[in-house]
Amino acid sequence: MKKKPVASAKTATQTAAKSTAKAAAPAAATRAAKIDDKLIKLGLRSDMDKVLHLPLRYEDETEIRSISEAGFIFGRSVQVEGVVTACEVAFRPRRQLVVTISDDSGQLVMRFLNFYGSQVKQMAEGNRVRARGEVRHGFFGAEMVHPSYKMVTEGAPLPSALTPVYPAGEGLSQTLLRKTIIDAMARIEWRDTLSEQLRSSLDLMSFEPAVRLLHNPPPDIDESVLADRSHAAWVRMKFDELLAQQLSMKRAQIARREKGAAVLPTIGKLSKAFLKQLPFSLTAAQQRVLEEVRADLKQSFPMQRLLQGDVGSGKTVVAAIAAAQAIDSGFQAVLMAPTEILADQHFRKIAGWMEPLGVNVAWLTGSLKKKEKLEAKARIESGVAQLIIGTHALIQEDVQFSKLGLVIVDEQHRFGVGQRLVLRNKGLDASAAAAQQKIPHQLMMSATPIPRTLAMTYYADLEVSVIDELPPGRTPIVTRVIDQNRRDEVIERVHAAALEGRQVYWVCPLIEESEALQLQTATDTHQTLVAALPDLQVGLVHGRMKPADKQQVMDAFTRGDIHVLVATTVIEVGVDVPNASLMVIEHAERFGLSQLHQLRGRVGRGSTASVCLLLYQGPLGMVAKQRLRIMRESTDGFEIARKDLEIRGPGEFLGARQSGQAMLRFADLETDQWLVDRARDLAQTLLRDDPATVGAHLARWLGAREDYLKV
Ligand code: ADP
Ligand code: MG
């Protein structure tokens, strides 16, 4: 956790005092406005927001240890009190404030790497400090680095209860936050949003005492139940929060249904012809999922469906058939992909299927020339284009659709909530005059499975279809984990594979800190391999290349003219070259599990047995070891995702970007699942029977934040 900057309230008061003579009122007003700005940054606008800004944790400042005793307490914070005996700004080697304090038992150094001038003054020799932190034994003896502290007078009373520590922002001290919250508590309307009867049936504590307890725990409280948030007061807060989330999502769902969608009922000429000319027949899983999608499109309210299927399970065909239904019904369909390479592949593949059947397909990405863009946009706007494929450009450019009926988002987890919302609303803009604000149907595709419980918690009304079967004739990928030292052997193996006519991906290490360095590594690897494999064609593709150049390389690889393709993670998503059956991933320990799985999914697409070699550089940390082992043991995306969840926890797994998870501050989806279920049930009942309670509860808990969830 970041240490709070110690901008003391005292300094602010002093500064204000100086200017009193001239313009006390305006100065105070500016100061208050500045504080308000900072509070707003923390999301605290209304008094209720402030009251619901609950402590992150609690500190026990009820006791003071002697300095010598504190030196023997390891791994947790202690509080000491002493008189400043020395204070200097030192350079060792970084500028820092070094303060020595002592009591009867010994002395201790406090070290601050970030400090204000005002702190140096505070720490004048002879002043008395209460400091709290972990004691370490450094070069200069016992020390605390960035302790929290306050100046006190001798014999100043100790608090009798635990001290709450609030999530704070830049320039907001704990003292100020505490005061803000106490003031707000005096102003709010405390009425409980849940009736006495509901509370007792759910065994919930009342709102007011719960909130007051959390801000101001009684002296005798069991510290551990506060810390692990199992105290009844926390349970009430978590329940309220989850209830607000469920209510908000369900309400958004109802609103969406009321808006309605274009009905796309026709499985006509195009749909039939399309299926007929496919070079394969659908797997049973594809067929089942397709029926689900087809049924949705016939409804007059918008589909909101997530199509999950492991890499290579054949989601694209299902999406294309859905698009055919939209076109058969006289509407446009749009497919948005997260990268140019992927959009391009979709375009070629789907246009290759659709154009011979007379469908007008448009293509729009950021890299098009201005003239081409204008031309594409004109076709989209006039309705000539029936199927539109592209990247983010579809939402960034001022694209107007004529009659958008279906939005398909590939690799949906790559997009933010907001981006998907914009695309869906495109349907609104254009059809506003004609149709009364209808919403296009939405089909999202992802190979990164969201566990069902999470999906239901985050998207109350998301339907999920799963393709749980791979097309026939695939042989499972064999994965080996190999020490970097054996790189030469690996190159030998690549050589042998290429001579057998197999194609190879060589994935360069991820270097998160520096794109330039990543590029450099890719270029170096390319050169090394060119030198080591003189009889082979070795290509290079990376994120910084011009789209046209990238395309040229990908084309050559698809045609089989390139044997070994050195690539950065640009190939992570969706690329489909069935003849590629060997993949080498360098520094596999730097990649996350889902990324490794996505990468590996680029091979194993044809009928040849595929191999994935994960090169690592030791020594490996615990987590990296675990990840590589999981990769070796499983090729099942769902299994891998579940393990990933275990390692990382749900918040990070979903990524704040797509989950609206900023919503949940107190509840933990894993440990509080039982509360989620209850909140969901109650939300259902309240929406049906008790709109007043719904309104009051949402106003209290979400205020202005509700928009987040209307996606
Ligand atoms: P993903 O689900 O990863 O997006 P794709 O849609 O790219 O998978 O499909 C992977 C490959 O499998 C493509 O080459 C596709 O044409 C092929 N494919 C899809 N469905 C079938 C099927 N039922 N039988 C045989 N091959 C199929
Ligand atoms: Mg795909």
From TrEMBL:
One of its GO terms (biological process) is DNA recombination. Residues 296-467 form the Helicase ATP-binding domain. It is an enzyme of class 5 (isomerase). It comes from the Bacteria. NCBIfam families: PRK10917.1-1, PRK10917.1-3, PRK10917.1-4, PRK10917.2-2, recG. Belongs to the helicase family. RecG subfamily. This is ATP-dependent DNA helicase RecG.
